[in-house]
């Protein structure tokens, strides 16, 4: 515990050097003239025309993509919050389409960017990053927030975040706006035809269970903790179902026992994964797969799939040469052994070529890995990791 506290204090000190002080204590306010994925939005009462999102293109397979989760799929939510969990500075985003930081915890695209492309949709905007009009949300919204977990306080030591339950509430607000604007039937049809992507739970281990907050490990053995998380997620999925969500992708957890941070913290000798951590992840994924199967049988007309990130990621690690990766344990960006001691906070800390690395920073994969995992979610191109079917099968089966 003392070591973790020391690391956190060092991170705070370094962050104050590299980030503007106001960014650490004051959430960013939305700039109405800032570019969005759909163009520029003029301020209220402006004499300039307002450009809004066009209707879904004719080649789109679904009307919208809604994303709920943590830093694995955050596309900029935390840019607007007072938190240390931010990716609004280089080298984050250096290999993105704009070559600028966007709030994504990656050198480039995150999995939902690749899936949006597969679905024929534009990149989904952050809930806190759009102007608030229905036209800006009609093709989807990303509610994900870095450091968020199933447990409300998970990740709170880093500052503000939008918890899992609060993200569901934000979608409820969005749905109500759709109903008021489009009418109840049209809004219900729009939601039922859309895809929901849920990726949550890893911070409940990183920032809560493994951190042993409130001595939780003494109270709950891993399996009981897994059951608690899984049943909570199940209830929130039912809440989405009650708002007419019918196509849902539930992501399992990645093998964080192989992440550079834990390789450094646990003193891995030759880059071997920390099996006791991966065993917890495996148990959680097993519990979630069972929950997803239950929901598929309990709820009429629900097409829900579970995608095992541990399984897909371990395939990449074990067959890294086939995928073109020659660095599997060291992060591209960071400091210390395995670049796992300190977060990626400066371009000087990053490797030149991220495409041959599995890990981008302490916990997050490179966009090359994200592309492979997104392919597997879509159609199992590289290996089967989604059950009972892939996302493409879900779309095709419902027309």
Give average pLDDT, whole number: 88
CATH C-level class of the domain at 58-254 and 275-320 and 364-397 is Alpha Beta
Alpha-carbon distance between the termini? 52 Å
The percent range for helix content is: 40-55%
Beta content comes to 5-15%
The CATH homologous superfamily of the domain at 58-254 and 275-320 and 364-397: SGNH hydrolase
Biggest sheet, spatial arrangement of strands: 4-3-5-6-7-10
- Please give the oligomerization state of what you see: single chain
- The number of E-state strands comes to 10
**In DSSP terms, counting alpha (H) and pi (I) runs of 4 or more, how many helices?**
15
Structural class: alpha/beta
Give me the CATH fold name of the domain at 58-254 and 275-320 and 364-397. Rossmann fold
Radius of gyration: 20 Å
- Give the overall shape, derived from the CA principal axes: globular
Summarize the main sheet.
6 strands, mixed
């Amino acid at each position: 515990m003392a070591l973790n506290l020391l690391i956190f204090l060092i991170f705070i000190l370094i962050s104050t050097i590299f980030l503007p002080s106001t960014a650490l204590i004051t959430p960013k306010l939305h700039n109405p003239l800032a570019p969005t994925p759909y163009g520029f939005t003029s301020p209220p009462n402006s004499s300039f025309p307002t450009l809004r999102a066009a209707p879904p293109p004719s080649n789109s397979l679904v009307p919208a993509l809604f994303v709920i989760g943590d830093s694995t799929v955050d596309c900029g939510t935390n840019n607007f919050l007072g938190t240390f969990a931010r990716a609004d500075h280089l080298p984050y985003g250096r290999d993105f389409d704009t070559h600028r930081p966007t709030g994504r915890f990656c050198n480039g695209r995150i999995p939902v960017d690749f899936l949006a492309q597969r679905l024929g949709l534009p990149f989904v905007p952050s809930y806190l990053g759009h102007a608030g009009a229905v036209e800006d949300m009609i093709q989807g919204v990303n509610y994900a927030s870095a450091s968020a977990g199933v447990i409300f306080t998970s990740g709170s030591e880093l500052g503000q975040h939008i918890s899992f339950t609060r993200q569901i509430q934000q979608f409820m607000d969005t749905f109500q706006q759709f109903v008021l604007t489009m009418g109840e039937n049209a809004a219900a049809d729009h939601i039922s035809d859309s895809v929901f992507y849920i990726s949550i739970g890893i911070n409940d281990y990183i920032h809560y269970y493994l951190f042993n907050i409130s001595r939780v490990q003494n109270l709950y053995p891993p399996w009981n903790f897994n059951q608690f998380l899984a049943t909570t997620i199940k209830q929130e999925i039912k809440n989405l179902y009650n708002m007419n969500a019918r196509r849902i992708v539930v992501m399992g957890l990645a093998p964080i026992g192989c992440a550079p941070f834990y390789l450094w913290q646990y003193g891995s000798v030759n880059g071997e994964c920390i099996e006791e951590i991966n065993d917890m992840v495996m148990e959680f994924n097993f519990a979630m797969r069972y929950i997803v199967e239950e929901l598929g049988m309990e709820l009429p007309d629900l097409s829900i799939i579970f995608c095992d990130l541990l399984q897909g990621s371990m395939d990449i690690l074990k067959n890294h040469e086939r995928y073109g990766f020659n660095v599997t344990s060291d992060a591209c960006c960071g400091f210390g052994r395995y670049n796992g001691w300190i977060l990626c906070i400066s371009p000087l800390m990053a490797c030149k070529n991220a495409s041959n690395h599995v890990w981008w920073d302490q916990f997050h994969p490179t966009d090359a890995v994200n592309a492979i995992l997104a392919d597997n979610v879509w159609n199992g191109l590289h290996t089967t990791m989604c059950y009972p079917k892939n996302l493409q099968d879900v779309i095709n089966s419902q027309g």
